[in-house]
Design a protein that fits this description.
homodimer, 326 residues, alpha/beta, Rossmann fold, 2 domains, 6-stranded mixed sheet, 42% helix, 16% strand, elongated, DNA-binding
Chain lengths: 326, 326
DNA sequence: TTGAAAGCGCTAACAT
DNA sequence: ATGTTAGCGCTTTCAA
């Protein structure tokens, strides 16, 4: 329609500098009239860049996860990338399916919110393949050369327990997340360290393992309450757990923080609105997501990562679910 | 490596039936050894199918939205499609950017969780273009020929208000979402209908418009409480609003349901864990999402939609935030 | 500043 | 059951 070549049209869209302003105008105008827009797929095939990254995450519905995703999406979008959502419900098989999108060039890289590595690393090595760019968010697969971004979970747990210790608590119940998760492992580590330093030991019967969801917090709390030596405080490894815990406590007629103090983890938006507002460890979830995306995009751009462990700051937020019993 | 043709390899992967079991085995084995996997991008270019759908949604972090997304992802995945996340923060511009992915063939269709239509429909018509497959979730753009899936918002609001009316409430405050949103409009409609049928009128000073978030509920509740004629019940157009409302009420020393009854909307997972557990309208959010995806995928498969308004069932869930004052 | 042309890796129609 | 081949719509090198 403009009588201009196909190459010039391409430049008009992608390299405005390499074409005269006049032709560019003409091309763009004609495109608008014809309803033409460049086929991104064809461009991707040619450049071997899909412009997508895939996020492998257990559950978008989880308040912490959804904030991570939001941060990823924001950073990716601002760099011209789109995000493919891989909701896995914790299934290793689905993790692999989504990871395979990088192999099939549907995605240029992977953000992995899981502790499992989604590739058979020996087989890949045997085939002489390189792994696609991948970064670990919040969790660690334990593989070398994979950048990870998270808070210092161990220190965060130490901070939480120290807070309770300072308040005079000596018997502290713990409700962990899935213990396969490295973040839960680190946090439990922190708990033991803090307790040991205070000359206390960790009573296993008051350490309940569940998952990061509300119903797990509820269930675990019932278990703790069934023990004969009840703790005076409970440290929950997620706010959702803490919310379930609060709920269970309420149903037992127990007052928080009157009878028992509760500490959460994450500082999800709801934490502030709980009854009582929850003392918790704030994680910069959106920043973690955004940082993951930026590191991944740098890797995709060919930058070799130099720092493999990105630690973002956490913060103890004291609200009304904890009190001094000194 | 197998000495077999390129077409046979293609068939071995995609049409297992059109190739002998033996060759297929050989091909797959060789692929594994070589670390080969089919380039999805190239296939997409050839078939003019990206295998992606894009979801345009204001905020993944919202408890209702995240359940919608989860349903979409589940249905799409089970039909071999992936979902591209378009988090817009309510920006019309970003809605358009994401919608453009369908034009550029990065996505085969659009699920739109917005009341705004992301295309300039006149310009498209002028260019003689067809719109890409698109379905509306929860909201309506008001365009013909676009299937939508939602609950019957008006009836749901009638149900909520009737519940309060039956409990003896005569003065009911309302906290709506964004009034640009068709769901809020419909719900407010329902409120007026139910009230009028009871011979009551809707007092505008007790109808506060905000957004669907917790802080809006908090703020709106303060406004209602500042009026001299206080309602005995508040109907919130989302559970998040209700949670903010509960929080504000608590800070004023008001007991729910002792001093005031509160009804939410959505039945997000938190609703059950609130203090008190929230009476609310349950929406089948995941099903809405899944239904959107299935309709869209049918359209992508060339099926012309026959039903343009899919209504899924809602349900009033009575918990402990409402009580009789008769 | 613009154009010609090769080729990205696949699918599908057609031939064998 | 398998092979040959055109071509999807771009980008990019090289030439004009």
């Amino acid at each position: 329609m403009t009588g201009v070549s196909i190459a010039t049209v391409s430049h008009a869209f992608r390299n405005p500098g390499r074409v005269s302003d006049l032709t560019r105008e003409k091309v763009l105008k004609a495109a608008a009239r014809l309803g033409y827009s460049p086929n991104h797929l064809a461009a991707s095939l040619r450049t071997a860049r899909s412009g997508n990254i895939v996020t492998i995450i257990p559950d978008v519905t989880d308040s912490y996860n959804s904030r991570i995703i939001k941060g990823i999406e924001r950073a990716a979008h601002s760099r011209g990338y789109s995000v493919l959502l891989g909701n896995t419900q914790g299934s290793a098989e689905r993790e692999k399916e989504y990871a395979a999108m990088a192999r099939s060039r549907q995605a240029d890289g992977i953000i992995l919110m899981s502790h499992r590595f989604p590739f058979d690393i020996d087989a890949s090595a045997a085939a002489g393949e390189e792994l696609p760019p991948i970064v670990n968010g919040s969790e660690f697969t334990g593989h070398e050369g994979i950048p990870s971004v998270s808070i210092d979970d161990r220190q965060a747990a130490i901070d939480a327990v120290s807070h309770l210790l300072n308040l005079g608590h000596r018997s502290i119940g713990v409700i962990t997340g899935d213990m396969e998760s490295t973040s839960s492992q680190q946090r439990l580590d922190g708990v033991r360290i803090a307790l040991r330093e205070a000359g206390l030991e960790t009573h296993d019967r008051n350490v309940i393992h569940g998952d990061y969801a509300m119903r797990d917090g509820e269930r675990a709390t019932r278990k703790i309450l069934a023990n004969k030596e009840k703790p005076t405080a409970i440290f929950c490894f997620s706010d959702e757990i803490a919310i379930g815990c609060l709920h269970a406590l309420r149903s037992f007629g127990l007052n928080v923080p009157g009878n028992l103090s509760v500490v959460g983890f994450d500082d999800v938006p709801f934490a502030r609105y709980c009854a009582p507002p929850l003392t918790t460890i704030a994680q910069p979830a959106e920043d973690i997501g955004a940082t993951c995306a930026n590191i991944l995009l740098d890797m995709i751009d060919g930058k070799k990562p130099t720092l493999f462990r990105h630690i973002l700051p956490h913060k103890l937020v004291v609200r009304e679910s904890t009190r001094s019993i000194a």
